[in-house]
Structures are given as structure tokens and as C-alpha cells.
Design goal:
The protein is an alpha+beta fold. It has eleven helices and eight strands. It has helices at 7-21, 31-38, 42-54, 79-87, 111-127, 130-142, 171-180, 185-198, 202-205, 281-311, 323-327, and strands at 58-61, 67-70, 156-167, 208-216, 230-240, 243-257, 260-272, 333-337. The strands form two sheets. Strands 4-5-6-7-3-8 form a six-stranded antiparallel beta sheet. The radius of gyration is 22 Å and the shape is globular.
Length: 338
């Protein structure tokens, strides 16, 4: 079962910890300082900090001496408040058992137990202060925090990736479609499965997609990005027989002309090391690049298909081009990082 926070929740918690550790200094923290401490993407950091401000957990001040600061001492802020600032109220949104026999139309047999479990989790998070979590973070940084036997982290390898694809739609249409769809897990799953089939190992690579999302980035002065481009945070996690991996990157929609645009992605693929299914650096880089390429191609197809369904018009010749022709519009780049 996936018990991790969403990517947004992850970033909000990291930022809250950074503000907590700086609280005793008395001064506000600049966005660039929070980014340096947390590795939250700069173009996304202002939205993350705004979540804390909206929840009343932080205050912001503009100007040369401005920045962000917790609104209360970290001892008075609970982990539950931070989680709910990013994720919303902690409660089950759907029935734990999903669809079932017709006699379950009103309630399922697991409802009461699941509700109690959620309540107990909320109680634990409410009892844990931000100060406690920040103290653990400081201890981990200096190496004095004991690693629990059930720790989920392991040494990971990373591959930096960059890729792009053309979409035969106006940039405004693409932006609207990206904003309308919240979950891209099925698209990613299909892309990973396709890579496995091409490699002759579809069964081994059939993934459990824990999370995949595309969230709008705040507008800003992102270096190297055209002023006409709009940005999104692209993040996913994969759980496979060969190990765990996740990708974090930025997706930018760049107009080419009134009828076409370009989707460009750059980010980092993190692969946990699994001694039982070790991959060479070249194998990891090649597979990561192919998955990202497949994901971009499938996003483009989904956007074009959705636009066609909305308009009711038959696909144009440009929309009927083959995957091979589309692949020619992609220029992948990758390099491994220690």
C-alpha cells in the first residue's frame, strides 16, 4: 500500500521543516534559501510556500528584507496541519473496498475499521510537532540519528534527462487540457509497459504506478525558459519487481506557431539500487530515456485525441502521422549523475 505523501505534500513538508529550522534566527527566509535547503524546484517554490501562508502556518513579507517565516513557533504547529495544508482534510475520499455486492450500496463491511484507522493516523500526526520533525532532520544531517530497521530509503542512482515532442495543437488548448486532467498514472503505466514489450521483458516491467501528476507551476523568471512558455511540475513514482524509482522534472509548453506547440521536459530519474536486479549505468540511462520519451509521446496523443473528441472534427493529416514520424520531433538527451 502506498502511504507516501503526494509530490505537493512532500514539498510542503520539506519547506515547513526548512522554515522551522530557521525560526530561532528571527528573520524570514528567501525563496532561494528554501530552494537551496529543500531542493524544491524554484518555479514551484512560491506555490508551495503559499500553501503554508493560506493555511495560516507561515507569513510572508515583500521587499528586500522580506521572505517567509512560520507564523507560530514550530512547537505549536502539528504535522497534521502541514499535511492538510497540502493534501486537504485527512479522510478517506472513497469506500475502502470500492465496488461490491448490491447489498453494499450504502456502506461496506470495512467502513468502520477504515474510519477508525484514519482517525488514529490523524491523532498521531496531530500529536507530533513540527519541532520534533525538524530536530530529527538536524540529527540526520549530522549523522547522529539512528536509522530504523524498516527505513525505506536506500542508495540511489540518478539520471538527468531532457526530451521534447511537438503537439499539433495551439499552446492555449494544450494548457487547458493539461489543467483539466489531474491523474496521468494510466498514461505512464502504458508507456512503461510499451518499453518493456520493446525490450522483450513486458512481464518483468509491468509496473505498479504509485503516483503520477502534472501540476501547474507558478509563473516566474525561470532561467532558460522562453517568456511565452507555461510550466508544469511532472512527477511520478514506480514500483516494479526490479525496484523503486521516481522522476521529478519540469514540463514547459512552448508555442511554435498558432497551430502547434512543443512539450519540453527536463528533470532527474532516481533509481533505488536493488542488488538482486542490478542495472548498469548504461542500461538505467537507456531505459529512463525511453520511458520519458514514451510518456511524452503518449501525453501528446492523449491531448490531440481529447481535442478531437471535444471538437467532434475528424483528425487532420497532421494528427494521423505515425509514431515514427512523431519520434523524429523528439531530441532526447541524458547523462548520469553520481
Amino acid at each position: 500500500m502506498n502511504m507516501t505523501l503526494s509530490k505537493r505534500g512532500d514539498y510542503v513538508m520539506r519547506s515547513a521543516i526548512a522554515l522551522a529550522r530557521a525560526f530561532d534566527s528571527g528573520g524570514p527566509r528567501k525563496i532561494r534559501e528554501v530552494v537551496a535547503d529543500t531542493e524544491v524546484p524554484r518555479t514551484f517554490a512560491s506555490q508551495i510556500l503559499a500553501d503554508l501562508v493560506r493555511a495560516g502556518l507561515a507569513v510572508s513579507r515583500a521587499g528586500r528584507d522580506g521572505g517567509y517565516r512560520l507564523s507560530r513557533p514550530p512547537e505549536e504547529i502539528s504535522v497534521l496541519e502541514i499535511v492538510e495544508a497540502a493534501e486537504g482534510p485527512l479522510r478517506a475520499e472513497r469506500c475502502a473496498l470500492g465496488e461490491g455486492p448490491c447489498r453494499w450500496e450504502a456502506v461496506c463491511p470495512l467502513h468502520e475499521t477504515w474510519t477508525q484507522a484514519t482517525a488514529r493516523l490523524s491523532e498521531l500526526l496531530a500529536e507530533t510537532s513540527l519541532a520534533e520533525v525538524a530536530a530529527r532532520d538536524a540529527a540526520i544531517e549530522v549523522g547522529s540519528y539512528p536509522v530504523p530497521v524498516d527505513a525505506h530509503r536506500s542508495h540511489a542512482r540518478a539520471v538527468e534527462l531532457a526530451d521534447l515532442v511537438h503537439v499539433e495543437l495551439p499552446a492555449l488548448v494544450v494548457d487547458g487540457a493539461l489543467a483539466a486532467r489531474r491523474n496521468w498514472s494510466a498514461i505512464l503505466g502504458a508507456a512503461v509497459h510499451e518499453v518493456g514489450e520493446l525490450a522483450g521483458s513486458a512481464a518483468r516491467l509491468s509496473p505498479l504506478v504509485a503516483d503520477c501528476s502534472i501540476d501547474a507551476l507558478a509563473s516566474g523568471d525561470d532561467a532558460g525558459v522562453d517568456a511565452d512558455a507555461t510550466g508544469y511540475l511532472l512527477a511520478w513514482r514506480l514500483s516494479e519487481p526490479g525496484g523503486q524509482s521516481h522522476f521529478e522534472g519540469e514540463l514547459h509548453v512552448q508555442p511554435i506557431d498558432p497551430e502547434r506547440c512543443e512539450l519540453a521536459v527536463s528533470g532527474v530519474w532516481h533509481q533505488e539500487v536493488d542488488d538482486g536486479a542490478a542495472q548498469t549505468t548504461e542500461e538505467l540511462e537507456r531505459r529512463a530515456r525511453h520511458v520519458l520519451r514514451g510518456m511524452l509521446r503518449r501525453i501528446a496523443r492523449e491531448l490531440e485525441a481529447r481535442a478531437g473528441r471535444s471538437s467532434g472534427a475528424p483528425p487532420s493529416p497532421a494528427h494521423r502521422r505515425t509514431d515514427r514520424a512523431r519520434a523524429g520531433a523528439i531530441r532526447p538527451e541524458a547523462r548520469s549523475r553520481a
